[in-house]
Write a structure and sequence with these properties.
Length: 177
């Protein structure tokens, strides 16, 4: 009986320990395009590839490689997270249109947060933190940030850098489990 009680107390304590172990950069919560919660702390300890996206951009075909990477490396810990934004005037009008476009055109299964700003004073707090941690704010759609499993180290990659480019893979592969 005492063991069960101790185990129950330990389980109840896990959320507070979990929150304390979450790196500051990942202490952000969003809703997905489908309205489900997306807690970045749940991704702590694994590599995360964050991308600001847009549905009507010349770089939109990068969705294909992002999804392929997600499928290929998900079992080894990689999560890709998309953040649609209309900061560069190339995103669809609402979250449902964005979700439909991503699913029907590119068969996206990786998490996509609701549309938000990723640049300037109106940037969501996570993108402000990414810009500060990496020294680079998005200059255009499909800016990529690879967050190391420590949740502190951030490698920025420009719009023109393909998701599966050698320089991205050189940083990502050692992080995979």
């Amino acid at each position: 009986m005492l063991r069960r009680l101790t185990a129950l107390i330990a389980l109840l304590a896990v959320p507070s320990l979990y929150a304390a172990d979450c790196p500051a950069l990942l202490k952000h919560e969003f809703k997905t395009l489908q309205g489900k919660p997306l807690d970045l702390c749940s991704l702590a300890g694994k590599p995360i590839l964050v991308v600001n996206t847009a549905s009507k951009c010349g770089y939109t075909p990068q969705f294909e490689k992002l999804e392929a990477m997600y499928k290929q490396y998900k079992a080894q810990g990689l999560t890709v997270v998309g953040f649609p934004s209309n900061d560069f005037k190339q995103e669809l009008a609402d979250n449902k249109q964005i979700a439909d476009f991503c699913k029907l055109t590119y068969f996206i299964e990786f998490p996509m947060a609701e549309a938000s700003s990723v640049t300037g004073e109106t940037a969501n707090p996570f993108f402000k933190a990414l810009a500060q941690a990496s020294g680079q704010a998005p200059k255009w759609n499909f800016q990529k940030y690879l967050i190391a499993p420590d949740g502190k180290t951030v490698y920025p990659f420009s719009t023109r850098t393909e998701p599966d480019a050698a320089e991205v893979m050189a940083k990502l592969k050692p992080m995979l489990q």
